[in-house]
Design brief:
The protein has 201 residues and is mainly alpha-helical. It has helices spanning 6-40, 76-79, 82-90, 97-103, 150-163, 166-182, and strands at residues 45-51, 57-63, 107-109, 135-137. The strands form two sheets. It has a two-stranded antiparallel sheet. A two-stranded parallel ribbon has the order 3-4.
Length: 201
């Protein structure tokens, strides 16, 4: 049986699931916020401009995991603390993105929002990842996360756009829980997080 059009189920699903999780998520976020304040100081949150649906920018909110940059060239491996690495491995740094979901900037499931400066570097096919709202998790995240190449990541993102369904979203959410518990594919080999995308040429 075919899934109904995404406009009929995706946004209501996001709102229902985030609402159901709001109390435990808020309590957990409070604990994480206090831990960030003790370990890293202020600011507790970072706010970054990221491309949303159709490439339109929005402010993404995350818990801070890195020390302030001494210079623009300071390597992420130096800035990323042991506590920050743990936060990333558990995905707890992404809890504030639930607010982005409630606002409609993001969905629970969709291609991860990357950096604004990547927009002119995509091929026309890769840019199709912006046909839907970006997600906290996605098909690429449960099939390699940061361990995959950029080309594979974008291919999986576009595959999701073409095959999006209620059943697939629920499958991705369940796979995400399993992946977070196992703490797999957190970083790209040889990098503190992953290498920057520099285009296809």
């Amino acid at each position: 049986m075919r899934s109904p059009p995404a406009d009929l189920w995706k946004r209501p699903l996001d709102i229902v699931l985030v609402t159901l999780a709001s109390l435990p998520a808020a309590l957990l976020a409070l604990v994480v916020a206090l831990s960030v304040w003790v370990s890293l100081g202020r600011p507790i949150l970072i706010h970054q401009l990221r491309p949303g649906r159709r490439g339109v920018g929005f402010r993404l909110h995350k818990f801070r995991t890195m020390l302030p940059s001494a210079t623009d060239e300071t390597d992420d491996a130096v800035r990323l603390t042991k506590f920050g690495r743990w936060l990333r491995s558990t995905s707890l740094d992404e809890l504030p993105e639930l607010w982005n979901v409630l606002r409609g900037d993001m969905s629970l499931v969709g291609p991860r929002p990357l950096l604004m400066q990547y927009l002119p570097l995509y091929t026309a096919e890769q840019a199709r990842r912006h046909e839907v709202r970006p997600g906290i998790t996605g098909w690429a995240q449960v099939n390699g996360r940061n361990a995959q190449s950029w080309e594979d990541r974008f291919r999986l993102d576009v595959w999701y756009v073409d095959h999006m369904s209620l059943r697939l979203d629920l499958k991705i959410l369940l796979m995400t829980v399993a992946q977070v518990i196992a703490r797999r594919d957190i970083d790209q080999p040889g990098h503190a997080t992953r290498e920057p995308f520099r285009g296809n040429g």
